[in-house]
Amino acid sequence: MRASKLALATLLAMGCLNAVHAADAPKIALRASDVWDDDYPTVRALKNAGELMSQRTNGRITLKVFSNGSLGSEKETLEQVKTGSLDVVRVNISPMNNICPETAVPALPFLFRSVDHLHTVLDSKIGEEILKTCEPMGYVGMGYYDSGARSIYAKKPVRSIADTKGMKIRVQQSDLWLAVASAMGANPTPMPLGEVYTALKTGLTDAAENNIPSYENGKHYEAVNVYSMTEHSMAPEVIMFSKKKWDSISAADQKIIKQAFRDSIPLNRKMWAERENKSMQVLLAAGITVVKDVDKKSFQDAMGPVYAKFASTDNMKKLVKDIQDTPDTVSIAAAAKKAAAPVAKPAAKPAAKADAKK
Ligand code: GTR
């Protein structure tokens, strides 16, 4: 015992402990799930996180990404993550709402004023605090990916809340979304993403709501061809790690894994912005009608009951207020990039012109 303590002390003194740790550290082969295909910004970012983990550990920690929902729907894969049969899942924050109620806050309608506002909040301690509330439920939040703004699509234009009255609309599997659609006067049907195309095609629902890339990539535009820019929610995507698995990983490896996910966020944001543009081009080329003159205020004014029900506890009210009070500054990553960028030289004064005038 004394001898091994002595050996440890010697190793510490020689600075060899890291080398010993690396040699002894176990191989970790992680599995992740995503409902979208390999080209989608969330899947590409997950793969990037995997590459970073692998590079930083000489291939000791790996992440295999199962795309296209091959391991199940978001609800099903969240269950697998809880039991530990799956390590990581990337989902929209909405299917988490019934699991850890604070996650309903960033999905609340008309909460974020801009993408900058959203990024600033998610990058701040508010974003971290919301993720932390899921740990007792079996999920360790690794961070957020972009999901843009969600709008309604149907066979007819939606210009104000009068147009959603009685509309059969598909919503995500979350009580918050049932309440949002009901507040719009619509009849909501919750279902997984994989069933939306058929529901729209067969008329089981008249409408759905999602961001531009989902409307395009899910081919939902083939069934209903009017996209109305209600932009009623900016519910972000989240990456959730199985708490069961997490607790079996050393603190040093946890740090590497979490950092790799964090470092994949700027790439995700860049790819997301590009994808929104690309998807819009595809939709316009397909002859989709995009309605921009939406009376958003008519929707916003109806959301009081949703806030009353879902921002009900003191903590949730505080989160809402803290978010509203957060200024629309650029996100931490963008600010750092801006700070590092060379300052542009001021344009030369038009001295000659002034002189000529004299
Ligand atoms: C998308 C999101 C998916 C899924 C989907 C939905 O924006 O990327 O993960 O949650 O919305 O509406 O089911």
Description:
It is a single chain. Helices cover 46% and strands 16% of the residues. With 358 residues, the protein is α/β, with parallel strands linked by helices. α3 links the parallel β1 and β2. It contains 17 helices and 11 strands. It has a 5-stranded mixed beta sheet, with helices on both faces. The chain has a 4-stranded mixed beta sheet with strand order 8-5-9-11. α3 crosses α11 and α3 packs antiparallel against α12. The relative contact order is 0.16. The protein binds beta-D-galactopyranuronic acid (GTR).
| Number of contiguous helices | 17
Ends distance: 92 Å
**How would you write the strand order of the largest sheet?**
2-1-3-10-4
Pairing-aware structural class of the strands and helices?
A: alpha/beta
Question: How many strand elements?
Answer: 11
Order of helices and strands: HHEHEHEHHEEEHEHEHEEHHHEHHHHH
List low-pLDDT spans. 1-20, 343-358
What's the overall average pLDDT, rounded?
90
Biggest sheet, open or closed, and with what strands and sense?
5 strands, mixed
**Proportion of helical residues:** 40-55%
Rg on CA atoms, Å: 24 Å
Spell out which ligands are present: beta-D-galactopyranuronic acid
β-strand amount: 15-25%
Shape: globular
Map the helices and strands.
Elements: H1 2-14, H2 17-24, E1 28-33, H3 41-56, E2 61-66, H4 74-83, E3 88-92, H5 115-123, H6 125-132, E4 139-145, E5 150-154, E6 168-171, H7 175-183, E7 187-190, H8 196-202, E8 208-210, H9 212-217, E9 226-233, E10 237-242, H10 243-246, H11 251-263, H12 265-285, E11 289-291, H13 296-300, H14 304-310, H15 314-325, H16 332-340, H17 351-357
Parallel strand pairs: 1-2, 1-3, 6-7, 9-11
Antiparallel strand pairs: 3-10, 4-10, 5-8, 5-9
This protein binds beta-D-galactopyranuronic acid (GTR).
Beta-D-galactopyranuronic acid binds next to strand 3.
